[in-house]
Amino acid sequence: MSVTLVLIIAVAICILVIFVSALTTSKAYTAVKHTVDPIEDNPHLEKMKPEDENQDK
């Protein structure tokens, strides 16, 4: 095999890997629904309050 053929195959593999990774990443971002939890009536916020705020009640 010549060095040129090996170089062409290596570049083709690199381009293929970049293309497949970009394709799967874009599918992952479109498949997942990104949401934000509301601040009002959020039960997780009670756990995050500092202890001195909880002692005032």
Summarize the structure.
By secondary structure, the protein is mainly α. The chain has helices spanning 3-31, 43-48, 51-55. It is 70% helix and 0% strand.
Uncertain stretches of 5 or more adjacent residues: none
Total E-strand runs: 0
Count of helix runs: 3
* Main structural class: mainly alpha
* Beta strand %: under 5%
Q: If you had to describe this structure to a student in words, what would you say it looks like?
A:
- Helix content is 70%, strand content 0%.
- With 57 residues, it is mostly helical.
- It starts with a helix and ends with a helix.
- The model has no long low-confidence stretch (mean pLDDT 80).
Give the helix/strand layout.
Elements: H1 3-31, H2 43-48, H3 51-55
What brief labels describe this structure?
rod-shaped, 3 helices, mainly alpha, 57 residues
